[in-house]
Amino acid sequence: MSLNNSNQKVAETREQVRQEKKEKAKAEANSGGKRRRIRIRLIPLWLRLLIIALSLVVCVILGAMFGYSVIGEGKAMDIFQKSTWTHIIDLIEHE
Fold first, then answer.
1. How far is Cα 59 from Cα 82, in angstroms, rounded to an integer?
2. What are the boundaries of each domain within the chain?
3. Residue 45: Cβ within 10 Å count
4. Within a 10 A sphere around the Cβ of 22, how many other Cβ atoms?
5. Is 42 helix (H, G, I), strand (E, B) or coil?
6. Rounded to 5 degrees, what are φ and ψ at 18?
7. Closest to 65 measured CA to CA, from 42, 84, 90
8. Sorting pLDDT into bands at 50, 70 and 90, what band is 74?
9. How far, rounded to the nearest angstrom, does the alpha carbon of residue 51 sit from its chain's CA centroid?
10. Do residues 78 and 65 make contact, with C-beta atoms less than 8 angstroms apart?
């Protein structure tokens, strides 16, 4: 008997939930449309763009250091010297 009573209470509760959802939907339809969610961003758009730009610069620098030191067999810190870049540009333009 108690199992039957608990099933009956669950069924009543389900019906109540369905009825409340229907009432909410009707109230929203009568009030002029759908509710819009407000989106709160944890990281603002300008900060995201700044992070992407900085990470791009860091990746380019690290890539140049890796390429010059490992592939070119030079010193990694030499990429910060102007003479290195003029030499690289001269090699590219003359060939």
1. 20
2. 1-40, 44-95
3. 8
4. 10
5. coil
6. -60, -40
7. 84
8. confident
9. 12
10. no
